């Protein structure tokens, strides 16, 4: 028996040694494989040692983010669950990003709030729960949707506790595990990479919180881009690192890793973030920015380029709750020759999506992009410039209260037809073959309330007829293929490639009627939030003498006693008279945009 037992032990030990040897061989082979792949880019762990493997086609799929967690955790449910990827804390709401997107089901969700005890509390109190309806839901991109949740009620406090927000279907019952919730608080909007798009052999990443100098191109040598495996909030491992080639304001452009360039069809959806050098010169520290950004393509799944080439003239704007103004703006500028519109919707809740759909069905070629990032107008315009470059020769960047006007063209005496049709497109077409002009600037006349008490029913172009004497600033139409790689802009104009310049339109030829100071009912919405990044909000006690503020207006949304009579130095009815003469319906007197909304 003893000899038999010894033989069995020897066989067991032999098998064990064989397994251990095989494991060691596999580990050693994997190490050799990693060293073999070290010719291209970093395997970035933010530790003293780094590997440098390349990203092959077989491993590229690993870059796609894994499911972070199911947002619905009911006790009993057979309905398909969503995956909640990110929570972002804005000043006035929570933004939740989830996948997959099934818009008709998102309306069934409600916001659930958990109050979490401090981490150092030894006897944790029970998790408090509050439920509130969602503010809105929206499709974000081809694979993701967004849900906006309000803050919990003001009397919902936890004595130093932190807060977590989840989603569930209305009527379902369930509660998250405490340990799980402790790691699910919202990411602050103050510092986050929020958007990324491909551009040739580079990726353009949009980042909040770099605190770079406004209106200037910054040093790119301190910035790196990182392409990662998992949620950046839950792990610190990154497959690849590349250097930045340009940095300006919130826009970082980095080289693509060679292996991603070799597999462009695999890049969509890969997570990306940036890092920057912090600390002092003697002890620099590379700080990683949290990220919710995935690499996407500029066109966003919809290309409107015609068979015979690009559109001559397109327009891009960013709006918040301006659905009522959109028809007049689009239909008027379509007559001037604009062929394609890009509407960046900055969290509207006034059914603007329906207005866009109606205009598109009427043949006005309008598309809407959900852009939930607050105070990022400059970055949004940079994103739009990339997107429009695929389809347009020229792109105008102006607001829905700004209307191009051609005094000399509009007042020609023609025997037939309407004078001035396609005037704006003709202007840009004359410069399309230019070897030096890449931007056309047009000065603005600022109009006031013109004595009105309520919004004009026929639109701003007919209602507001009194303005300031002198022009203020300008608006630009640019060649998107001739912009500087930094995409730097200050809303009114872009940085152009070296060797190109802008052209100023003579005021007698073209002007922009900017219906800037409207009736108080409309104007006071500006106190809620400004869309431009570097323009101070109205309620902040800063830059009171700036042209970005209304002269003499304070920091509170209180109507001045003489508001309706302000900003009125010259009565100017030129555009109103022209529109009434040529566009009003002879029987009803209605304008085209009025009839379109009936």
Residue share in helix: 10-25%
Low-confidence segments, ≥5 residues, pLDDT <50? 12-20, 28-68, 71-80, 230-235
Total DSSP E strands: 28
- Shape assignment: globular
Q: Count up the helices.
A: 14
- Class from secondary-structure proportions: alpha+beta
Provide mean pLDDT, rounded: 81
Kindly report how far apart the N and C termini lie. 100 Å
* Main sheet specs: 9 strands, mixed
Pfam family, one: Glyco_transf_92
Enzyme class: transferase
Membrane topology: Single-pass membrane protein
Subcellular location: Membrane
What can you see in these coordinates?
The chain is globular, with a radius of gyration of 29 Å. It has 14 helices and 28 strands. The relative contact order is 0.09. Strands 9, 10, 11, 12, 13, 14, 15, 16 and 17 form a nine-stranded mixed sheet that branches. Strands 18, 19, 20, 21, 22, 23, 25, 26 and 27 form a nine-stranded mixed sheet that branches. Mean pLDDT is 81; it is low at 12-20, 28-68, 71-80 and 230-235. Helices cover 20% and strands 26% of the residues.
């Amino acid at each position: 028996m003893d000899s038999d037992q010894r033989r069995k032990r020897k066989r067991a030990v032999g098998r064990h040694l064989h397994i251990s040897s095989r494991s060691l061989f596999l580990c050693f082979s994997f190490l050799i494989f990693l060293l073999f792949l070290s010719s291209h880019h970093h395997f970035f762990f933010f530790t003293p040692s780094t590997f440098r493997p390349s990203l092959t086609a077989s491993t590229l799929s690993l870059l796609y983010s894994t499911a972070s967690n199911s947002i619905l955790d009911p006790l009993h449910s057979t309905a398909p669950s969503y995956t909640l990827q990110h929570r972002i804390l804005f000043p006035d709401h929570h933004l939740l990003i989830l996948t997959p997107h099934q818009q008709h089901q998102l309306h069934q969700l409600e916001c659930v709030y958990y109050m979490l005890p401090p981490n150092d509390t030894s006897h944790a109190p029970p998790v408090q729960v509050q439920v509130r309806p969602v503010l809105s839901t929206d499709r974000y991109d081809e694979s993701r949707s967004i849900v906006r949740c309000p803050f919990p009620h003001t009397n919902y406090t936890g004595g130093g506790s932190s807060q977590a927000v989840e989603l569930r279907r209305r009527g379902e019952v369930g509660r998250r595990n405490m340990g799980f919730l402790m790691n699910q608080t919202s990411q602050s909007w103050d510092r986050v990479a929020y958007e990324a798009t491909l551009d040739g052999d580079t990726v353009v990443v949009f980042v909040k919180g770099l605190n770079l100098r406004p209106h200037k191109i910054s040093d790119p040598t301190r910035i790196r881009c990182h392409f990662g495996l998992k949620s950046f909030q839950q792990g610190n491992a990154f497959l690849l690192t590349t250097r930045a080639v340009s940095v300006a304001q919130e826009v970082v452009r980095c080289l693509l890793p060679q292996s991603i360039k070799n597999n462009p069809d695999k890049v969509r959806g890969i997570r990306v973030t940036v890092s920057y050098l912090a600390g002092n010169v003697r002890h620099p520290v590379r700080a990683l920015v949290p990220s919710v950004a995935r690499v996407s393509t500029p066109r966003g799944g919809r290309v409107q380029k015609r068979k015979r080439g690009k559109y001559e003239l397109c327009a891009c704007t960013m709006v918040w709750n301006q659905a009522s103004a959109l028809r007049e703006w689009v239909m008027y500028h379509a007559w001037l020759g604009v062929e394609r519109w890009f509407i960046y919707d900055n969290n509207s809740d006034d059914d603007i999506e329906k207005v866009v759909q109606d205009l598109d069905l009427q043949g006005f070629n309008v598309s809407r992009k959900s852009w939930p990032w607050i105070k990022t107008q400059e970055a949004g315009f940079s994103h739009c410039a990339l997107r429009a470059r695929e389809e347009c020769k020229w792109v105008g960047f102006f607001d829905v209260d700004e209307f191009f006007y051609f005094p000399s063209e509009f007042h020609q005496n023609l025997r037939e037809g309407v004078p001035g049709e396609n005037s704006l497109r003709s202007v840009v077409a004359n410069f399309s073959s230019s070897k030096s002009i890449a931007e056309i600037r047009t000065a603005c006349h600022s109009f006031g309330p013109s004595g009105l008490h309520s919004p004009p029913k026929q639109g701003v172009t007919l209602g507001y007829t009194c303005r300031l004497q002198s022009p203020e600033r300008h608006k630009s139409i640019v060649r998107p293929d001739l912009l500087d790689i930094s995409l730097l802009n200050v809303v009114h104009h872009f940085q152009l490639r070296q060797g190109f310049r802008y052209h100023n339109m003579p005021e007698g030829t073209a002007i922009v009627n900017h219906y800037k100071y409207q009736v108080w009912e409309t104007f006071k919405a500006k106190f809620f939030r400004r869309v431009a990044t570097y323009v101070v909000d109205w309620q902040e006690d800063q830059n009171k003498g700036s042209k970005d503020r209304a002269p003499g207006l304070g920091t509170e949304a209180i109507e001045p006693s003489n508001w309706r009579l302000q900003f009125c130095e010259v009565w100017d009815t030129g555009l109103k008279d022209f529109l009434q003469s040529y566009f009003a319906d002879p029987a009803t007197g209605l304008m085209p945009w009025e009839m379109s909304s009936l």
